[in-house]
Amino acid sequence: MDVTDRSSLPGRPSPAAEREALPREIAGLAPLEPGFTALLDAGLREIGLELSEAQRAAVEAHVKLLIAWNVHINLSGLRTASDIARGHVLDALVAVPALRQLTRGRAEVTLLDIGSGGGFPGLPLAIALPARRAALVDSIAKKASFLGAAAAVVSDALRAAPAPQPEIVALAERAEDLADEPDQRDGWDLVVARAVGTVAEVAELGLPLARRGGHVVAWKRASDAAARTALNAEIADARRIVQAAGGAGTRIVGLAGAAKIGLDGDCLVVIRKVRPTPDRYPRSAGERRRRPLP
């Protein structure tokens, strides 16, 4: 994926030139520390999830590239492979059993990740579900550049698998703009978001992109009574926009095994799309700020 940033400072390489120097393949990158493998293995056992050799290689390729880029571009506050194993990879993979239930185990699932950043949760989900087609969306050019490189190394690793590999693309766009494109609007089985905003914000951005019968899924954490109360209030505040944008049945889905892998309180907020989204949604960021509710 080619993302061009035309800004530069005198006497310094432009951001685009700096990005060109960053690795775009895993050959020559440092191996992951042993703690990564141990944490990933233990987590997969608790989740009850098996990955093929090619899928494991794809997950590791993504993490190696993330660590290499993270030295120069702030893609994640987690810096070590072990921290990334729990805080990013397992945080995504712990949702796979629940997402398979939502999609009834279909092999042709399509997945769009809003605000993908370092590729989470989108890339691990695309690998493990597996998805037939996945899009990683981020409006920040440097992050979208990384996502394009990460999608490529993951695809390379998955070519060793006997099963068809997913088509994975990185899109340097705002979700609001993406929803105006006929080939994207109403086009996705799962629209996922982690650390993007409130339930209301995720609903308004995600429902226009989900197909009728598909789902918008937000990663949330409710580790104690106060956090659960706050999340319930967030869901209640989102009720009007969910209904206006064609959604229904907002619910919290607990994640079996999350507490055992150090992710206590991790849960999903799931919204099912039951009607077409009116053309006026999603509203611009400015209008959403001025009028949080429709």
Task: Report on the architecture of this protein.
The protein is an alpha/beta fold. It is built from twelve helices and seven strands. It has helices at 15-21, 34-47, 53-70, 81-93, 96-102, 122-128, 141-158, 175-178, 199-206, 225-237, 239-244, 285-290, and strands at 110-114, 133-137, 167-171, 188-194, 210-221, 247-254, 266-273. A seven-stranded mixed β-sheet has the order 3-2-1-4-5-7-6, sandwiched between helices. Helix 9 (199-206) links the parallel strand 4 (188-194) and strand 5.
Give a count of the beta strands, DSSP E runs of length 2 or more: 7
Average pLDDT level: 91
The first-to-last residue Cα distance is 36 Å
Overall shape: it is globular
Fold-level CATH name? Rossmann fold
How can the largest sheet be summarized?
A: 7 strands, mixed
List the helices and strands and how they pair.
Layout: H1 15-21, H2 34-47, H3 53-70, H4 81-93, H5 96-102, E1 110-114, H6 122-128, E2 133-137, H7 141-158, E3 167-171, H8 175-178, E4 188-194, H9 199-206, E5 210-221, H10 225-237, H11 239-244, E6 247-254, E7 266-273, H12 285-290
Parallel strand pairs: 1-2, 1-4, 2-3, 4-5
Antiparallel strand pairs: 5-7, 6-7
Brief descriptors of the model:
294 residues, Rossmann fold, 7-stranded mixed sheet, 12 helices, globular
Give a quick rundown of the structure.
The chain has 294 residues and is an alpha/beta fold.
